[in-house]
Amino acid sequence: MTDRRDNEMAVPGNEDAALDPHASQPGDPIDNPGLPAHQPRPTDVDEAAEKRAERQVAAMFGLSAVCAVLFCVAYFALDIGSEPDMFGGIGAQNLALGLALGLALLLLGVGAIQWARKLMSDHEIVEMRHAVASSEEDRADTVAALKQGVDDSGIGRRPLIRNSMLGAVAALGLPAVVALRDLGELPGSSLEETVWRKGMRIVNDVSGTPIRPEQVEIGQLVNAEPAVFFATDEEGEPVYEGHELQAAKAKAAVILVRIEPSEISPLPAREDWGVQGILCYSKICTHVGCPISLYEQQTHHVLCPCHQSTFDLADNARVLFGPADRPLPQLPLGVDDEGYLVAMSGFQEPVGPSYWERGES
Fold this sequence. Notes:
CATH class of one domain: Mainly Beta
Structural class: alpha+beta
Family: Belongs to the Rieske iron-sulfur protein family.
Membrane topology: Multi-pass membrane protein
Main location: membrane
Distance between the termini: 59 Å
CATH topology of one domain: Rieske Iron-sulfur Protein
Shape: extended
Protein name: Cytochrome bc1 complex Rieske iron-sulfur subunit
Number of strands: 14
Keywords: 2Fe-2S, Cell membrane, Disulfide bond, Electron transport, Iron, Iron-sulfur, Membrane, Metal-binding, Oxidoreductase, Respiratory chain, Transmembrane, Transmembrane helix, Transport
């Protein structure tokens, strides 16, 4: 590529080029690149404006340094202990640190921009574009060298060596497969099933207390999970614990919502999946598996905080917006003999993100 300023120096006696950096030069592919004449900035022609801009930039840099020092002062001077300093109901130290650091970075950036716009050299440069492909001779030489290497290796004339080498390279994939198997148990049906079973109680995900229908108010959302997570076996040991508990929780978490029955539009054969307007859906977003619980009471919409997928819980968790392409799986509900909410079966479809072997819901 050609720098116009280099061309000006390379052509003896080209006085016009020295005055006009965009003047046509010998060897240029076009006579006129089409750039308008250079327009000087106020700071290029007015010394007072130049000095004023210089003082402005220096002042911004100086204020940036002051803010950085104030950050350090606030860190040590303001208390965040048992009785923290407050300002307008906000922690004074957090407020001071945020303002000081934010202003320091802002002033530094604005000062650098002003420096570049008003004071740095401002000259247009024309760089002619040239072909970047190699010449036909170089390309032919490269192909010839590759062909010569193949001929010298004798791979075409020695099939025994060629085939045994290919077999050895392919066999290198076997150790990788074996090593991957050591990552853990095969998933089996775990991608399609959860621990939910018919008759399993739905409990609060924090306290583990079972839930009665009358305890859920209209417009309320309750984060819940199966009671088995709090159950123990005959020896008093937890049924689920450790990594098994966390893996099961990651798939079985649900949300309960109560909606006016007249506002619910159930799918055919799902008319009895709710109890007194209480519906239960998987808490796991069908996009990439984020937990959701941002609920809008008036619209019955629930929002995934990761990528803003929005589901209408009054309409079978239909996707309204965002990258998710499947509704949230619904868990059919019932009431046991003691009046507590229970699952009437497991989920009828896999929960969580879609994957290539997952059937249509």
